[in-house]
Specification:
The chain is mostly helical. It contains ten helices and no strands. It has helices at about 1-15, 15-35, 40-70, 70-75, 85-110, 120-150, 150-180, 185-195, 200-210, 215-255.
């Protein structure tokens, strides 16, 4: 698996899209710091971009890599290699390459602007951790979709629809539910509904760390009320780990049944 992981990682790192991804975050970091001239304010602004954009990039890269490397993967499957090792190597290689581009692209400008001397270093570190989690989560989700769909166009369509649902539609449905059933106690429902969306969960995790009451919203306030800031952060982090584990488990389960 390690050899396949290295191949997938270096293959993506040589890809021009990885450089585009890296340069985008590099320029974004410098522009935000130039406009805000304050690391703390730049972290808050960056949060909204990371929460939406990172899942989209992870989704597209995951589906694109699976379909583009399908012939090479079938060649590997013809060898006496465990298929789980092949796909896990590819999955981890993609996730690590995207995460490295994110860490370097944002880390360089913030370090250049004196991050280590700023009180926002822990907030920025959490932002990078959450972004890394979102990479691993959405690459795994996109791989699940690609493994379940032979047609390349349908696979791309389902993957984008999945991201669109979790990033936009889910919040709309959630708000409509709160408006319709506002006469009922909805605290527990809000907690459970938030846990079923890694994007919302990531946003609340960062806001709990920043402790910005005005931006916490209903679900963030409920999280802090039920669990407190520190416990709420730990629970959010644990659920994000489960969001990585379950899609990876389904990938391995799907591999055992799939006929290549």
């Amino acid at each position: 698996m390690l050899k396949i992981l290295k191949y997938s990682f270096y293959d993506l790192m040589r890809s021009r899209w990885s450089y585009v991804y890296f340069i985008f975050y590099l320029l974004l970091g410098f522009v935000l710091l130039f406009l805000n001239n304050d690391v703390s304010k730049a972290v808050i602004t960056l949060m909204n971009i990371i929460i939406v954009l990172t899942p989209l990039i992870g989704t597209i890269f995951g589906v694109m890599y699976y379909y583009n490397s399908r012939e090479f993967t079938e060649l590997l499957l013809a060898q006496p290699i465990n298929r789980s090792k092949i796909f896990m190597g590819q999955y981890i290689g993609i996730s690590l390459s995207l995460t490295l581009s994110l860490l370097l692209g944002l880390g360089i400008p913030f370090v250049a602007y004196g991050l280590f001397k700023s009180a926002a270093i822990f907030d920025f570190s959490l932002l990078l951790v959450v972004g890394s989690f979102l990479n691993f989560i959405f690459v795994a989700l996109s791989y699940n979709i690609a493994l379940s769909t032979e047609n390349k166009i349908k696979g791309f369509g389902y993957a984008i629809l999945m991201w669109l649902f979790l990033a936009v539609i889910y919040d709309g449905l959630f708000l409509i539910s709160l408006m319709i059933f506002n006469d009922y106690p909805l605290d527990k429902f809000s907690l459970i509904a938030t846990m079923f969306n890694p994007i919302d969960l990531s946003r609340i995790l960062i806001l709990l760390k920043l402790d910005i009451s005005a931006l916490l919203g209903y679900t963030g306030a409920v999280f802090r009320k039920f669990f407190g800031t520190n416990v709420g952060m730990l629970i959010s982090m644990f659920i994000l780990i489960l969001w990585v584990v379950f899609p990876v488990f389904r990938i391995n389960r799907k591999l055992r049944k799939k006929d290549f």
